[in-house]
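for ur thesis appendix - NmrA-like domain-containing protein. copy paste whatever u need, i formatted it the way the template wanted (i think)
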Amino acid sequence: MAKLLVIIGVTGLQGGSVARLYQNLYQKEPGRRIRGITRDPTKPSNAALREAGIELVAADLDDPSSLDRAFEGANAIFAVTDFWQFLQQPATFAEAEKTGRLPNQVAMDHEIQQGRNIIDMAAKHLAGLDRLVLSTLSDSQKWSNGEIRWNLHFDGKAKITDYLKTTYPDLAAKSSYVQMGNYLSNWRMLPIFAPQKQADGSFIFYALAKPNGKAIPYVDPPNDTGYFVKALIDAPAGITLLGYGEAMQAEEHVALWGKVNGVRARFEQLTAEVAREAGLPEFLVLEVTESGMYSSSYGWDGGDPEVKHPKDVGVDVGKLTKVEDYFRKEDWSGVL
Ligand SMILES: NC(=O)c1ccc[n+]([C@@H]2O[C@H](COP(=O)([O-])OP(=O)(O)OC[C@H]3O[C@@H](n4cnc5c(N)ncnc54)[C@H](OP(=O)(O)O)[C@@H]3O)[C@@H](O)[C@H]2O)c1
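the 3d part is after this line
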């Protein structure tokens, strides 16, 4: 078990889950500590983490020297990068305009740079490090043989993983990877992702999937991520884990949602036309529709034979969130 676990993204969905699980474990293990990285440790919303005994340090993924300090003494590091935040920043759109690229290309380049900063600095602390667990996604260009070109929130993460493996084999020998599945909470991300009430009282639940596509691995990151990361810290390095609680086709997911809420609901594919009508800008239409085509044609992990499932690597699968459990615990009143 790690003596000092450093968590990037501790204030977020994935990192917060890792922090809560380890805080519970470490209460029974004196001498073991958690250090969480945030850009602003003093934020009032971070009080709960501090009160739980987690050391919060200020560091920025854009500032390697701050990561160097934050990784001091780390035995284990959990790292996640956040692609989507860049698409809420005016600087991304200004740079896209200036350089003639799409905003999602600029966002991917920024995410890759942050990932490289994490890896460069983790490599500086290799001697004391037992495990780096990187939150990543599969390489859609590679596994689709070039058919999928715009699933950039996947491909940037895959490039970060490639950078780690090719630049620092010694660090890679101490690393494992979690490819987080499809967040069950994605319906909150954009209005068109939520079930849409029809005039007859039934619902259409659009999904980024084609009919009869590959099963989608669903995950509830605030609950489940900690269990994946613990399994990857406890097991030997070199594992790539698909992080999910339950996999099913989009059709089954929607039918279950209807059953839980006692309404008629049907799945429809979120096509480019639907996305455009919903007001998504063209770069986002590309990103979300190609992402759906990739995962439902090739699989979330692209069919990579090396990817393991939670039950194969010692994850406490009984603690993971089933789709129906998630539907029952959510408040759907705003949608219904
Ligand atoms: N939606 C899906 O279905 C899905 C599936 C698989 C993977 N993902 C990936 O999950 C990632 C997001 O993870 P999440 O859900 O845990 O994110 P989140 O809840 O939005 O939290 C983002 C975290 O990143 C930290 N952060 C952002 N920029 C930072 C910086 N410059 N320096 C230091 N820390 C920084 C934030 O910390 P502070 O704000 O406190 O600094 C926060 O803790 C995305 O890249 C997405 O592509 C999503």
